[in-house]
Design a protein that fits this description.
Chain A: Belongs to the STXBP/unc-18/SEC1 family. Chain A: This is Vacuolar protein sorting-associated protein 33A. Chain A: It is a peripheral membrane protein. The complex is a heterodimer of chains A (637) and B (453). By secondary structure, chain A is an alpha/beta fold. In chain A, 44% of the residues lie in helices and 12% in strands. Chain A is built from 24 helices and 15 strands. The two termini of chain A are 45 Å apart. The termini of chain B are far apart. Chain B has a two-stranded antiparallel sheet with strand order 1-2. In chain B, helix 4 packs across helix 5, helix 5 runs parallel beside helix 7 and helix 15 crosses helix 17. Classes of the chains: A alpha/beta (637), B mainly alpha (453). At the A-B interface, helix 5, helix 7, helix 8, helix 14 and helix 16 of A face helix 5, helix 7, helix 9, helix 11 and helix 13 of B.
């Protein structure tokens, strides 16, 4: 079921198995039949650890979503709440417990906090007078969840906001704990590198925890050679840019959640022979995306412009395989052909699905005139659009340009900023987008990008953008703009010297002739822009950070190196030509394009290093900026 | 993280809660420096404490009696009190502990103790026993050292800070907290989460973080549903110490809502009376309250166009009050008037008179965009043609003319460019026998023209 986790350089299935074992143990603690009440946010991450079958084996008979009022009826002995330690959830739980029907046979309550129990939550339950009703209050330590053979995420949505805006470092503590668990399973990581304040903090905590463990070294041969901790605020630019890999674009446009994507169903309607026009499905098509699917593993990290060719090549191979049946003459040959059929059919379905997805994306990215489809990813903040439509039925904001044109123009401006063209003036494209009331997040992404690429905006430019945004989208966004300023995404240029060009040139962040079809550099993932974070990773492996000391000093936060002593006898003897394994941990989020770039480095023939990627959250520019927006009241309509 | 000398122990004696008194063996315990010795003495300590049953609350958080030899809470407690011990050197293994496979025994390091300690301790007696400010702050420092945000927040909040607030010792407290940045940030985040608005405002004020305080108070307006109350609240926000540029925006926000309330009441009345043409023709679908300023301007351009600048609802008044840029104003007014098919109004938006009295059409947004907007609003061919003509860039002009089928412009331009080939190509695109077709034919037949190709 999760075999794809064990195909990578590091067998991440071990981590998953450990998590499953813990879960089973907890379930067995509550003897008898059970119903689980889910904090909805957790169902996604849990799905990656255990399917319903595992729960069923341990007498879980019913599952509910956590909501106020009375719990649904269920003839079970135990009610178990699976929740994040959040105060507002405690109130709901208290409501559930209090309104429990006293007349019926009593049910036992348990609560399982994920990933940590929290004193404040228990205090809250106590205040509501229900803490005593719980037989078990436990925690389920789920820090790092394996997403793929080389990818771990904590799926902590607010990590960046907490660390860089609220200055609450709890998620860093969880990160350090997660890394300790990882080291318990995969051995001590001898070398730790890092860049940024948070990285320093996590490393300090790890070393401290290690000291406290001293004397009880894990007797596991180290799997990882190096750990690299990177602060997201060292590279604020990359997530703002539109990702141009296949997987990155799927995420930008439709959003990938816990390994699943929901797509508009029209292109997936199956026309079976013999049936007439079937009703078009209205439910979104839900697809799982991971390396278990051979074709997806092959194309997900390609630049989107290279996906078409890959798909058609695959189509030829598959149809050739089906043609083989004509050559099967003997019974043995036919038997062999039939035995391959399920595999071939799966491949054909997979091909059909990805052809449809590629078509959907192409409608948006290529420069043909087509009616603009509305999709959740790019049009997250339809707020004002809808208001105007409602207001007078006479929308003043018809999309003047088609989606594909908008996509192309947007990309052009992004690339101008990244190459340093006119970053110190008000950009007319941004101005026009505001006038057209394009989604606010799109505007914020662009303005922030301009600010980052210019090391801050001039007072006049910043004031202008702010006024236009507030006038068009509402004054309450003062709060969001302030948040962006606090995190450094938007800032006033204080020194006259803009050091971004120096960083760009030294780190070769812009490659003029990026080869999208047969890439020779990581810059292919953004069609020219090489993500700064991944460039730092690449340079660390070879020739080492000493060569870029000057640039490192320009980027925020300290850079450092630490070594952890290995117990005697566990020193790894590297074979000639054996690759090193590096765990890169992105504190505050990582994009799919960055992951693609690291996978590209892993696969380089003379690379010498393979990467496993871990993060607090898988992000894209839209979800990232959204997490920094102040919670606004629902629009009045 | 270590307390240098436990010199503040009087409170233990005076404390009502004597669940874990160390009076008897305190000196001995406090002299312990080595972790191993500490471990060994735990059993003894726990036994001692069992005898003191009368003064003790007996039920622990899990509902089980405490005081068994291996109770981690008791151990944690013990460690915290004897905080002059070097916690970082302590290792304790719990034999029945958690294990992954056979190779690893799960160890409980000091921060876990810390965590357990609070669970345990809060059940028995509040941390009020840490009476003096100094003690509280030392406790806080310990928590910060452990790095667990959960614990830091717990210490900050439920334990004693709030009580301190109530005792109005804010200045003292904020002075102490200021030097404890990490704890302070956690506490602020916590207060935000809990919606402890007043406390937070007070805290910011005493810390001198006035801008944060102002924004926080401003944020409150979002939770006020009633527009009049919201307006009053915004008014009270104006005088808050915002960063300089935000102060103006907050003032504008207030002014805007104030105007919207007036306009809304007035227009609702007018619409109900049903005597004003524009409301009958284009009934309002929603109220204008709480809309952004540009939306309000658009509304005003639909329903109140041409009113004198003296009225609040007139576009001119809104434009000048809120310093709307020329471009924004033009785009909004254009969209609104085009939607109502008021082509004359559209024309006058771009008409300027020079001092000689000549009129000229001028646009700061580029006429190609004007044409786009007009086309989207189904402007008749004649109107479109007028504005296509005004596009300066000849290439853009010709492609727009082709796009919107302004044949005359295309034909005249090719004629002016003496581009016979293009004209022939274009003839293929127009309807046969149509006036355009004829016009092209006439031009092609004209022998006077010296074609370039």
């Amino acid at each position: 079921m999760a075999a794809h986790l064990s195909y990578g350089r590091v067998n991440l299935n071990i981590l998953r198995e450990a998590a499953r074992k813990d879960l089973r143990e907890f379930l067995d603690k509550c003897a008898g039949s059970k119903a689980i009440v889910w904090d909805e946010y957790l169902t996604g991450p849990f799905g990656l650890i255990a399917q319903y079958s595992l729960l069923k084996e341990h007498e879980v008979e019913k599952m509910f979503t956590l909501k106020g009022g009375r719990l649904p009826a269920a003839e079970v002995k135990n009610i178990i709440f699976f929740v994040r330690p959040r105060l507002e959830l405690m109130d709901i739980i208290a409501e559930n417990v209090i309104s429990e029907d006293k007349m019926r046979s009593p049910r036992d309550f348990h609560i399982l906090f994920v990933p940590r129990r929290s004193l404040l939550c228990e205090q809250r339950l106590k205040e509501r007078g229900v803490l005593g009703s719980f037989i078990n209050v436990d925690e389920y330590i789920l820090d790092l969840i394996p997403y793929d053979g080389d990818l771990l995420s904590m799926e902590s949505e607010g990590a960046f906001r907490e660390c860089y805006l609220e200055n609450d470092q709890t998620s860093l503590y969880h990160t350090a704990k997660g890394l300790m668990t990882l080291q318990a399973l995969y051995g001590t990581i001898p070398q730790i590198f890092g860049k940024g304040e948070c990285a320093r903090h996590v490393a300090n905590m790890m070393l401290r925890m290690k000291r406290e463990f001293a004397g009880c070294q894990t007797q596991v041969l180290p799997v990882f050679d190096t750990l690299l901790l990177l602060d997201r605020n060292v590279d604020l630019l990359t997530p703002l840019a539109t990702q141009l890999t296949y997987e990155g674009l799927i995420d930008e446009i439709y959003g990938i959640n816990n390994g699943y994507v929901k797509l508009p169903p029209e292109k997936f309607a199956q026309k079976k022979q013999g049936e007439g026009e079937k009703d078009l499905p209205t439910e979104p098509k839900k697809l799982q995306l991971n390396s278990a699917e051979e074709l997806y593993a092959e194309i997900r990290d390609k630049n989107f412009n290279a996906v078409g060719a890959a798909l058609s090549k695959k189509a030829k191979i598959i149809s050739a395989a089906f043609e083989e049946r004509h050559n099967a003459k003997t019974v043995g040959e036919i038997k062999q052909f039939v035995s391959q059929l399920p595999h071939m059919q799966a491949a054909r379905t997979s091909l059909a699905n990805h052809t449809s997805i590629a078509e959907l994306i192409k409608d948006i990215t290529s420069r043909q005139k087509i009616p603009p489809p509305l999709h959740p990813g790019l049009y997250l903040t339809l707020l004002h659009f809808s208001i105007i439509v409602v207001l007078c039925c006479i929308s003043c904001v018809p999309p003047y340009v088609s989606a594909s044109e908008a996509f192309f123009d947007n990309l052009t401006v992004e690339q101008e900023f990244m190459t340093g063209v006119d970053t110190d003036k008000v950009n007319t494209y941004i101005e026009d987008c505001i006038a057209q009331k394009d989604p606010l997040i799109k505007i914020l992404r662009l303005v922030c990008m301009q600010s980052v690429c210019n090391n801050g905006l001039k007072q006049k430019v910043l004031d202008y953008y702010k006024r236009e945004i507030l006038q068009t989208y509402g004054y309450e966004h003062i709060l969001t703009l302030n948040n962006l300023e606090k995190t450094g995404l938007l800032k006033l240029q204080t020194s006259t010297r803009n050091n971004y060009p120096t960083i760009r040139k030294t780190l070769k962040l812009w490659m003029e002739d990026a080869n999208e079809q047969n890439p020779n550099d990581i810059s292919y993932v953004y069609s020219g822009y090489a993500p700064l974070s991944v460039r730092l990773t690449q340079l660390l492996a070879r020739p080492g950070w000493r060569s870029i000391e000057e640039v490192l000093k320009m980027l925020p936060g300290p850079h450092f190196e630490e070594r952890q002593q290995l117990p005697a006898g566990l020193h790894k003897k590297r074979q000639q030509g054996e690759n090193r394994t590096t765990l890169v941990f992105f504190l505050g989020g990582v994009t799919y394009a960055e992951i693609a770039a690291l996978r590209f480095l892993s696969q380089m023939e003379d690379g010498g290093t393979e990467y496993v990627i871990a993060t607090t959250k898988l992000i894209n520019g839209t979800t990232w900026i959204k997490s920094l927006m102040d919670r606004l009241e629902e629009p009045p309509f | 993280m270590m307390r240098s000398k436990p010199d503040e122990d009087d409170y233990w004696n005076s404390s009502k809660c004597r669940a874990f008194t160390f009076d008897d063996d305190y000196d001995e315990l406090s002299s312990l420096k080595e972790s191993k010795r500490a471990v060994n003495s735990i059993r003894q300590f726990v036994v001692d404490e069992d005898e003191d049953e009368d003064d003790m609350v007996k039920v622990s958080w899990s509902g089980e009696p405490i005081g068994t030899a291996q109770d981690p809470y008791a151990i944690a407690f013990y460690y915290l009190i004897n905080s002059n011990l070097d916690l970082s050197g302590v290792n304790l293994s719990l034999p029945g502990g958690h294990s992954y496979g056979d190779s690893l025994v799960f160890f409980i390091p000091s921060y876990v103790f810390f965590f357990f300690f609070f669970f345990f301790f809060l059940q028995f007696c509040s941390l009020e026993t840490f009476r003096s400010l100094k003690d509280k702050m030392q406790l806080l420092d310990q928590a910060v050292c452990a790095n667990d945000g959960n614990v830091i927040t717990a210490v900050c909040t439920h334990v004693f800070l709030q009580k301190y607030f109530l005792q109005c010792k804010l200045e003292v407290l904020s002075r102490e907290l200021m030097s404890r940045d990490v704890a302070l940030r956690h506490y602020i985040h916590y207060l935000k989460e809990m919606g402890e608005q007043k406390l937070l405002v007070e805290l910011f004020k005493s810390l001198g973080r006035t801008e944060d305080m102002a924004l926080l108070q401003y944020r409150e307006h979002l939770s006020i549903k009633d527009e009049v109350r919201r307006k009053e609240y915004l008014k009270s926000c104006i005088s808050l110490p915002f960063p300089p540029d935000d102060a103006g925006h907050v003032q504008d926000h207030y002014t805007l809502l104030e105007r919207q309330i007036i306009i809304e009441a007035n227009d609702k009345h007018l619409e109900n009376k049903g005597q004003v043409e524009v409301f009958k023709k284009h009934p309002r679908k929603a109220s204008i309250l709480n809309m952004p300023i540009i939306t309000t301007l658009y509304y005003s351009c639909v329903y109140h166009y041409g009113e004198s600048e003296g009225t609040y609802s007139s576009p001119a008044n809104i434009r000048s009050t809120f310093k709307i840029s020329e471009k924004q104003y033009l785009l909004t007014a254009l969209s609104a008037r085009a939607k109502l098919k008021e082509w004359l109004d559209v024309g006058s938006l771009f008409t300027t008179k020079n001092w000689l009295g000549y009129t000229k059409k001028r646009s700061p947004i580029g006429f190609h965009r004007v044409v786009d907007i007009l086309h989207k609003n189904n402007a008749p061919a004649q109107v479109l043609q007028e504005y296509v003509c005004l596009v300066e860039d000849p290439n853009l002009k010709i492609s727009l003319a082709q796009k919107y089928k302004c044949h005359d412009i295309v034909i005249d331009m090719y004629k002016d460019q003496k581009d016979r080939q293009q004209l022939i190509v274009y003839q293929g695109k127009v309807e046969r026998g149509s006036p355009e077709d004829k016009k092209i034919q006439d031009i092609l037949n004209n022998t006077q023209i010296r074609w370039k190709n």
